[in-house]
Amino acid sequence: MTSHPRRGLSPGPILIARNLYKAFFLGKTVYAVNNIDLAVMPGEFLVILGPSGSGKSTLLALLAGLDRPISGQVVLDGHPISDLSENELADVRRRKVGYVFQFFNLVPHLTAYDNVALPMTLTGAPNWFIRQRTGELLSLVGLSARASHLPGQMSGGEQQRVAIARALANEPRILFADEPTGNLDSRTGDQIRQLFRDLNRDFGQTFVIVTHDERFAGLADRVVRLVDGRLVSETPGGRKA
């Protein structure tokens, strides 16, 4: 990865959400995301905290282009994405977005190396570049020695590190993470939080993380809290520069 100042290169927000709504009908209309406005600056480490059922994962999926709002708009890197076609949206996700899931979502029959290489293969990157970058990313997350292992042969923490390396493969403008320590023990969770902090500090990687884990607040530049689909507060994080 290329190191650059933590605040990034663009003077304006990298991500803007305007008047986002997402609802489900469960015998009655339930708003999982209710009139949310949010902006994320390049290089920012933003943490969205909230209890289970608060709408965190739904909001993250909208911001990342994995789902569409019933109204409102998401603007990524200066371009509105909510009204793009499925193919256009898939291309944006491949080239500009990284996403880390709570349950890793690795391809079970692919090795760690091949899981990390997959996003680059899908964008048509040359083989020499894929080999070089995959090796660099596995080294970055401390898993060079596990390159030939399948997900089922790795611990949860190792699988999450592979998932993080995969999310970084195409040098995303922004990396989203959905409860990235929620399926890990306390010690391994500490290691994953430290890895995110290092990636943000050393490479200027922009992060938006949704979690109920208050320990993430100490790493954040900014913390927003979500309750019943609404952003109810915004405070500085506990990060030390």
Structure, explained:
The protein has a domain of 155 residues: 3-Layer(aba) Sandwich (Rossmann fold). A hairpin with a 2-residue loop joins strand 4 and strand 5. The protein has 6 helices and 10 strands; from the N terminus they run βββαββαβαααβαβββ. Helix 3 runs parallel beside helix 5 and helix 5 runs parallel beside helix 6. It is α/β, with parallel strands linked by helices. The strands form 2 sheets. A 6-stranded mixed sheet has the order 6-7-8-3-9-10. The N terminus is likely disordered.
Concise synopsis of the structure shown:
The chain is an alpha/beta fold.
Top keywords for this entry?
six-stranded mixed β-sheet, disordered N terminus, alpha/beta, four-stranded antiparallel β-sheet, 10 strands, single chain, globular
CATH domain topology of the domain at 42-60 and 101-236: Rossmann fold
The shape is globular
Overall mean confidence score, pLDDT: 91
Order of helices and strands: EEEHEEHEHHHEHEEE
Biggest β-sheet: count, sense, barrel? 6 strands, mixed
CATH architecture of the domain at 42-60 and 101-236: 3-Layer(aba) Sandwich
How many angstroms does the end-to-end distance come to?
Answer: 20 Å
What's the SSE blueprint?
Elements: E1 15-25, E2 29-40, E3 45-49, H1 56-64, E4 71-76, E5 79-80, H2 86-96, E6 97-100, H3 112-122, H4 127-140, H5 156-167, E7 174-178, H6 186-203, E8 207-211, E9 222-227, E10 230-236
Parallel strand pairs: 3-8, 3-9, 6-7, 7-8
Antiparallel strand pairs: 1-2, 1-4, 4-5, 9-10
